UniProtKB/TrEMBL annotation:
Biological source species: Tripterygium wilfordii
Summary of the function given for this chain in its UniProt record: Scaffold protein for the de novo synthesis of iron-sulfur (Fe-S) clusters within mitochondria, which is required for maturation of both mitochondrial and cytoplasmic [2Fe-2S] and [4Fe-4S] proteins.
Name the UniProt record assigns to this protein: Iron-sulfur cluster assembly protein
Localization: Mitochondrion matrix
Lineage, uppermost ranks: Eukaryota, Viridiplantae, Streptophyta, Embryophyta, Tracheophyta
Protein family (similarity comment): Belongs to the NifU family.
Cofactor(s) the protein requires to work: [2Fe-2S] cluster
Complete-protein stretch covered: 23 to 163 of 170
Length: 141
């Protein structure tokens, strides 16, 4: 458990009770997976979204993070924020908003950056899957 004098209560809350820890099936066509790493510290974050293909809305999200408390808290917040939003909307989530929400100190900004990158990577993965699945079904006899 991390010291409450150094961290904002939102960080401690999300670190001790992370929301939406888990994994979806990567092969599910409605799932987008973002896997990103921070070169500076070697921490790794996997964030997944489940998308309603008709509305483009994120119906569920989960993450697994091998990293510091701020990275875990950032991914937890990110999964909370993407749920119920449209894909275009979640692309506008900024790491600075996450950092502000958690009152992260400047040295921990890259931890929230990981969350922003992971959201973008998950959307990209989802979109590339849709493209591939439509081309392969076109090609099918
Ligand atoms: Fe959890 Fe705000 S304290 S998302
Ligand atoms: Fe690297 Fe937090 S110290 S993600």
């Amino acid at each position: 458990v991390i010291s409450s004098r150094l961290y904002h209560e939102n960080v401690i809350d999300h670190y001790n009770n992370p929301r939406n820890v888990g994994a979806f099936d990567k092969k599910d066509p409605n799932v987008g997976t973002g896997l990103v790493g921070a070169p500076a510290c070697g921490d790794v974050m996997k964030l997944q979204i489940k998308v309603d293909e008709k509305t483009g809305e994120i119906t569920d999200a989960c993450f697994k993070t091998f990293g510091c408390g701020s990275a875990i808290a950032s991914s937890s917040v990110a999964t909370e924020w993407v749920k119920g939003k449209k894909m275009e909307e979640i692309l506008t989530i900024k790491n600075t908003e996450i950092a502000k929400h958690l009152s992260l100190p400047p040295v921990k900004l890259h931890c929230s950056m990981l969350a922003e990158d992971a959201i973008k990577a998950a959307v990209k993965d989802y979109q590339s899957k849709r493209v591939n699945s439509s081309t392969s079904s076109d090609a099918a006899p």
